[in-house]
């Protein structure tokens, strides 16, 4: 929690083309001819028959149907579809690449041999398969009937050909074009995926907040979300990655829920802070960026999900993560919390720890570690976005303008030199400054990437009731796992300065 009390609370488009005779000018009377389509197919067929054992094919190619013959300037491509009893084995194809003389250059094969075909007594109708598919994806509507498709075929698993329907439905909730493989007799869902490709949008955000980029509080005030020239000048144009194409701020790692119901059919989200949609965009961008950063340093299994973020739905000057709903909520009291990247990152830190150690922070020291890690994540993220060094060692400069008189204004600092147990206060945020400085000092010593990687790795070793000592020992052990203990002496020194042993 931000403030003073702890609540962790498609179907492919197939183009069949006859290979034309191409003339190449090499002088007044010279020309080169490309072999005709029938000759291309003959050459491809012959090659596959001769190499059937290599690709596990039947020697007579009786279960391969030619789908397309496509010519390009420098090569020709023959695509085959695997079939069983005349029906397609979905997504299992073979392509043969030939040069312009008919020589085979490459074969790529998805062909799957099988030992038997599962027999069924009562094959369901296409309409029943479509209804099953809608139910399996949890659709709240019947889809776009004009665009939906149903086709009977097979999939092969463990040497058995299973009769299925490939059903594609287009729904608004959940949004997407959904491909489902439905067992043709019992209706069981065997596979599903969203065929929609992720979209990239554009928007404007604070990077990380206007106080940090301006390097001062002069001339900028909240003034009830009013725009000003100084504040607008701090906006930065960014790409919004991973959008689901629905026009809403829903993507691979973030799902924005807000009273603004921000929408753009062109995925263009350029707002100023006087519009509540600005906070939606700001939240989406910074959470998405943080998750992509975590993955970039080697973690594909930490909070790798689309987290729901409630923006401008809570009027208090506070924000929190709820482990029961797995959602983030950002308050709109004072400066809207969702306008400050440090605050967004802090709350995302709670969701990270809950994801790594469900129920984390059940002890007093564990709770302080949670707040400290959130501040570390926020401060190092702010530092990575700042170019002038203003606000270093501080988190939430813009948010803090509504309650802090320091220069720069800070929600909390990470360089107060608090020592355990001397400075233990029994208040989770204040005590979190002990922990956050140890982690922040690691970032200064090793760099953000190495420090963050060690710290994230250490979380896997912790329990809900972990103490400062547990956390420090886990950090040292994580360094051994990741770097062979190369940073061990410095880790010992950094945490000893905080009064915490790593042994």
Automatic annotation (TrEMBL):
Residues 63-109 form the FTP domain. It holds the Pfam family FTP. GO terms for biological process: proteolysis. Keywords: Hydrolase, Metal-binding, Metalloprotease, Protease, Signal, Zinc. Residues 1-24 form the signal peptide. The keyword Hydrolase applies. SUPFAM superfamilies: Metalloproteases ('zincins'), catalytic domain. InterPro entries: FTP_domain, Peptidase_M36, Peptidase_M4/M1_CTD_sf, Zinc_Metalloprotease_M4. GO terms for cellular component: extracellular space. Transmembrane segments: none annotated. It comes from the Bacteria. One of its GO terms (molecular function) is metalloendopeptidase activity. This is Bacillolysin. It comes from Gottfriedia solisilvae. The lineage of its organism: Bacteria, Bacillati, Bacillota, Bacilli, Bacillales.
